[in-house]
Amino acid sequence: MNPAVEVRTPIDDYLARQQDLSAVERFADHHDRADGPQHERWYRELLPAAPPGPGQQYRFEVDMDRCTSCKSCVSACHSLNGLDEGESWRSVGVVVGVGAGGPTQQTVTTACHHCVDPACLAGCPVDAYDKDPITGIVRHLDDQCIGCSYCLWTCPYDVPTFNHRLGIVRKCDMCSDRLAEGEAPACVQACPTGAIAIGIVDVADLVAATDEVSSLVPGAPASARTVPTTRYHRAEALPADATATDEWSEAPKHAHRPLVVMLVLTQLSVGTFAAVAALARSAPSLPDQTLRVGAVAAMVSGLVAIGASVGHLGRPLQAWRAVIGIGHSWLSREIVAFAVFAGAAVAAAAARLLQPRSGLSDALGALVSGIGLAAVGCSVLIYAVTGRRFWRLDRTAAAFAGTTLACGLATAIVVVATTADAEGGAGTLRALAGALVATTLASLVWHARLPRRGTDDPVLERSARLLRGPLAATQRAHLALVAAGGVAGPLLLVALLAEPAPPAAAIRTVAVLSLLLVVRGELAGRTLFFRAMASPRMPGIPR
Questions:
Q1: According to the model, what pLDDT value does residue 418 have?
Q2: Helix (H, G, I), strand (E, B), or coil: what is residue 362?
Q3: How far apart are CA 161 and CA 174, in angstroms?
Q4: Hey, is 170 helix, strand or coil?
Q5: Model pTM?
Q6: For the structural domain made of 45-243, what CATH number should be given?
Q7: What is the pLDDT of residue 501?
Q8: Would the CA dihedral through 275, 276, 278, 283 be positive or negative?
Q9: For the chain, how far is it from start to end, CA to CA, in angstroms?
């Protein structure tokens, strides 16, 4: 071999390339000479030329023909905003149908619609939402949020998400900090086909064009409630029969156990105060101890319920802020009403302890009952105003009124059975037992009107499938417990009272068991109230 001939191996070539820094230098030079955002040439045409003017606001504009369901928008949003695992501010769903040209499948990318009249803002008890007066962007104020999650129910598009690590709700703000610097939001910048853009809309024109039946896309809720600003456009209209692939799909919702306890026990407290007030007027033969024990039991259950409600909050130490939104939020009004109720309950119980039968005690008993009923009314409206079909006003009012009556009557039966002798309290016990049976039967008949399979309403049909599918065992337990405690127990009590020598111990045992069964049944029913609720939403993935 000629020693003058250089022999190069692949390793020599590799080491030589490693010493060539020209690529790095070229990239650094390109970066240093850049006057604007690096990807500006790709997304500049997807941003408006100027900020919104008076009466205008920003909005998302989606070209549905360009969306390929690659989910780059979802990934970019998650990465840029530092979202936790399982947290997402943008999603992609599917709409299918059959048109003149055959079957059609359309993907739909969606995030917050930055509505003209945002329901999340209107319902928030701590004013943790803000609609920018210039850009129209609806922002969530993380430091103000107490984690009550009420906005998850008031938003008709299921947009806000709860962050369990932080204990607060978060949502899309259209990357407002990037827009302020002339840079596109993450989803806009990441879309490889330019399917998402930022546009400007005249608010008055949008409101005028939104009617009672219009919606953003098939399967989306009616736009009239909040007037969402997102614009979806397609060269050919979707078929008239187009539906979201998840239209009939639903999974059980969170049980919200602190709220379950709070609702049932507050209603028990209100019902018991009303029952004690009625007994004070209608049963003068009952011993004073009956009124004392009844008032104290009502007070204790109410205070326990209010304490339990704090466990629902992601940031319970900030619960005091919940009164801020009293001018527009039913949740704030409920909190204030029950705070007043708690004070009145202590005063009413103290009056009954000191002077069970006096004008002051009767006046305070009537007052606390009235305040309590008003507070329960606020509880009803909290859920009714969300627009959820399962929480419709008449359905929620009937459920909460039934719980108030049944629990109040069952508690009154226990109080009378344990404080009055069988002879003196027999007539009162029969009357209370009869009222409890009538209330329970009416409640059971009402439950027969709950959504059943076969309804034409997709949202109620989803609730019906839950009640007769994954939640069927809870539903059966609820009905059985309520029937046992509210019908069988009182009837057995009446039968025992009919004996020549009514057995006091057996009467007390039956009374206590009836109360426990009624309360346990109502807890199961309130759990179903939350878990079987099917929410309206944008098209998504079958659950």
A1: 93
A2: helix
A3: 15
A4: strand
A5: 0.88
A6: 3.30.70.20
A7: 84
A8: positive
A9: 73
Q: Is 93 left (phi over 0), alpha (psi -120 to 50) or beta?
A: beta
Predicted pLDDT at 309: 93
Sheet of strand 196-202, all strands in order from the earlier edge strand to the far edge: 196-202, 56-63, 231-233
Cα 231–234–239 angle (5° rounding)? 110
Per the model's pLDDT, the better-predicted residue between 212 and 484 turns out to be 484
What HEC string does 96-148 produce?
EEEECCEEEEEEEEECCCCCCCCHHHHHCCCCCEEECCCCCCEEECCCCCCCC
pLDDT digits (tens, 9 = 90+) for 244-266: 888 888 899 999 999 999 999 99
> Quick one: pLDDT at residue 35?
61
CA angle (497 as vertex; 496, 501 as ends), nearest 5 = 90
CATH number of 257-531: 1.20.1630
Tell me, rounded to whole angstroms, the distance of Cα 472 from its chain centroid: 22
Q: What is the DSSP letter of 484?
A: I
Pairwise CA distance, residues 168 & 147, whole Å: 4
Residue 514: Cβ within 10 Å count: 27
**Sequence-ordered list of residues with C-beta below 8 angstroms from that of 379, at least 6 positions apart, any chain:** 263, 266, 267, 334, 400
Q: How far is residue 57's CA from residue 522's CA, in Å, rounded to a whole number?
A: 47
Cβ(393)–Cβ(380) below 8 Å:
yes
Mean pLDDT of 488-494: 96
Reply yes or no on whether the pLDDT at 30 is more than 70. no
Q: Are 332 and 326 in contact (CB under 8 A)?
A: yes
Q: Report the SS3 class of residue 421.
A: coil
Q: Can you give the length of the chain in residues?
A: 543
Q: Which residues contact 452 (CB under 8 A, 6 or more apart)?
A: 464, 468
The pLDDT of residue 502 is above 90: no
Report the distance separating Cα 100 and Cα 132, nearest Å.
Answer: 43
DSSP E strand stretches across 171-320: 196-202, 231-233, 243-244
Closest by CA to 172, choosing from 542, 538, 509, 501, is: 538
Residue 127 contacts residue 324 (beta carbons within 8 Å): yes
| C-alpha 414 chain-centroid distance | 35
**DSSP track, 393-420:** HHHHHHHHHHHHHHHHHHHHHHHHHHHS
In the chain, where the domains are located: 45-243, 257-531
User: What rounded mean pLDDT belongs to the chain?
Assistant: 90
- 95 DSSP β-pair partners: 106, 244
Which pLDDT score is estimated for 21? 62
Reported as a pLDDT band with limits 50, 70 and 90, residue 219 is: confident
Q: State the Cα–Cα distance between residues 7 and 114, nearest whole angstrom.
A: 68
Q: Please give the Cα distance from 539 to 407 (Å, whole number).
A: 41
Structure tokens at 84: 């936790």
The lowest-confidence range among 27-31, 404-408, 463-467, 516-520 is 27-31
Range 36-64 average pLDDT = 81
CB neighbour class for 138 (10 Å; exposed up to 12, middle 13-18, buried from 19): buried
Residues 425, 280: contact at Cβ < 8 Å? no
